Amino acid sequence: MTTALILFAHGARDPRWREPFDRLEALVRTRHHGPLALAFLEHMAPGLADAARAVADAGASRAVVVPLFLGTGGHLRRDLPVQLAEARAAAGIPLESVTAAGEDSVVLAALADYCVAAARSAD
Length: 123
Known about the structure:
By secondary structure, this protein is α/β, with parallel strands linked by helices. 48% of the residues lie in helices and 17% in strands. It contains four helices and four strands; from the N terminus they run E-H-E-H-E-H-E-H. The protein has helices at 19-31, 48-57, 74-91, 105-122; strands at residues 3-9, 36-40, 62-67, 95-97. It is globular and about 55 Å long.
């Protein structure tokens, strides 16, 4: 079974907004050797259905969607389930979503370290 990862971010009208997500995708690519895609909820391409099709075409038999959000708000509660259903139908493979990245204790610890380092650098 080949598991793909789909990194799922909000999206924005300013194309520069996606730059850190592109860098994250490149970092993940060095660690995950299966199919990988970056997808956006709105304002940017590809959307989740197109990304799911792409990883299925690349040989994935299933995909895990990783929401790159700090918390589980309305977009993840309302919009993501609809987009997941559309993506499953479009790609023809099982897709599941994990919790928002910001809900993970390791991610929160990394952000806490960043915040503390920012205070130290200001001294």
